[in-house]
């Protein structure tokens, strides 16, 4: 049986506030829990006006207090932006606050330009090269294996499930070598999906944490009572993605009827590419698309992403999918 999860970037909409964005994230997490989703993850982004999840661990705590049973965590923490000891302390704290519920997804791509590098006081290129060693060190800080010279308190002995994130073959290789579950970011980078999953499953080495491969694949999902309505609510994120890829990011804009049809061929091609891992339409249409995607990937879990200008539309989307998820 396929599990379902939700990825939230904590979108800040045009004309909205940060306070509204965080309240909407809490409401969405409660809806995901009620719909039967297994986990709710927050993604780390920095210096982006339309995304408010930069203080990822703090937002996860906010989600934890708004819910009671759903697993919560990071999808992910971009480890080159940090050092392993601080992340061990943060997630050790979360694990103590929300026992048995905390996930820590780790990514390698810092996604930062020169200005952010200076702000973080990091050589992010060098930090990305050290990513495998940092993952091993972070796991050791949580588990004590291998032994490290300093103990993270909180952190040591914390019940935190580690995941490896990726959008290329690198993350698949590392996840397989370390025996970690693997989540592929196919919702925005589907190019290497099939090759990465094949490599991960082929080279997987069992670990204390995991005895066989476990795959999560991400999809963009928008559900409404009609296909036209689903396309309309999806148009806000489509606009944001085109703006990001063309160097003009900002806050989440209102939906635009017929947005895709108004685009020039190059911009439409951008959306067609990420559309390889998307499901937009009625519950029946989306259910069929997810079923086909699971058949293609063999994914144990589907992580659903998708921001709507009206937060209520995304909650309604989850409610309409409730029967499928259960």
Average pLDDT taken over every residue: 96
What proportion strand? Answer: 15-25%
| Model regions low in confidence, pLDDT < 50 over at least 5 residues | none
Q: What is the CA-CA span between the terminal residues?
A: 10 Å
Helices and strands: which structural class? alpha/beta
Shape: globular
Count of alpha and pi helical runs: 13
Q: What features would you describe in this structure?
A:
The protein is an alpha/beta fold and 326 residues long. Helix content is 45%, strand content 16%. The chain has 13 helices and nine strands. An eight-stranded parallel β-barrel has the order 1-2-3-4-5-6-7-9, surrounded by nine helices. The longest helix is centred in the C-terminal third of the chain and has 19 residues, at 227-245. The chain is globular, with a radius of gyration of 19 Å. The mean pLDDT is 96.
Summarize the structure.
This protein is of the alpha/beta class and 326 residues long. Helix content is 45%, strand content 16%. It has 13 helices and nine strands.
How do the helices and strands line up, and which of them pair or pack?
Layout: E1 3-8, H1 18-35, E2 39-42, H2 56-66, E3 71-78, H3 84-97, E4 102-107, H4 114-120, H5 124-129, H6 131-143, E5 160-166, H7 169-178, E6 182-184, H8 193-203, E7 215-223, H9 227-245, H10 265-274, E8 278-281, H11 283-297, E9 301-305, H12 311-320, H13 322-325
Parallel strand pairs: 1-2, 1-9, 2-3, 3-4, 4-5, 5-6, 6-7, 7-8, 7-9
């Amino acid at each position: 049986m396929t599990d379902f999860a939700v990825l939230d970037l904590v979108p800040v909409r045009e004309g909205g506030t940060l306070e509204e964005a965080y309240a909407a994230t809490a409401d969405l997490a409660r809806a995901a829990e009620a719909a039967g989703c297994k986990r709710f993850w927050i993604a780390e982004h920095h210096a982006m006006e339309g995304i408010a999840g930069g203080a990822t661990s703090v937002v996860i705590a906010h989600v934890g207090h708004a819910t009671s049973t759903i697993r919560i965590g990071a999808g992910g923490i971009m480890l080159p932006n940090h050092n392993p000891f601080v992340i061990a302390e943060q997630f050790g704290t979360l694990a103590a606050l929300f026992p048995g519920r905390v996930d820590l997804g780790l990514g390698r791509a810092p996604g930062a330009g020169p200005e952010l590098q200076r702000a973080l006081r990091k050589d992010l290129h060098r930090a990305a090269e050290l990513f495998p060693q940092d993952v091993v060190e972070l796991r050791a800080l949580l588990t004590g294996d291998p032994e490290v010279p300093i103990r993270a308190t909180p952190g040591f002995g914390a019940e935190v499930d580690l995941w490896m994130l990726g959008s290329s073959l690198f993350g698949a290789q590392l996840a397989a070598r370390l025996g970690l579950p693997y989540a592929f970011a196919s919702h925005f980078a589907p190019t290497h999906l099939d090759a990465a999953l094949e490599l991960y499953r082929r080279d997987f080495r069992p670990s204390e944490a995991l005895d066989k491969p476990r795959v999560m694949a991400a999809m963009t999902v928008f559900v409404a009572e009609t296909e036209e309505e689903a396309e309309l609510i999806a148009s806000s994120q489509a606009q944001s993605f085109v703006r990001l890829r063309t160097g003009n990011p900002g806050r989440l804009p209102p939906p635009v009827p017929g947005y895709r049809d108004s685009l020039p061929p190059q911009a439409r091609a951008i959306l067609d590419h990420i559309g390889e891992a998307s499901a937009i339409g009625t519950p029946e249409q989306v259910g069929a698309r997810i079923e086909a995607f699971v058949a293609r990937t063999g994914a144990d879990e589907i992580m659903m992403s998708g921001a709507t200008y009206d937060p209520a539309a995304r909650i309604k989307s989850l409610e309409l999918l409730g029967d499928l998820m259960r």
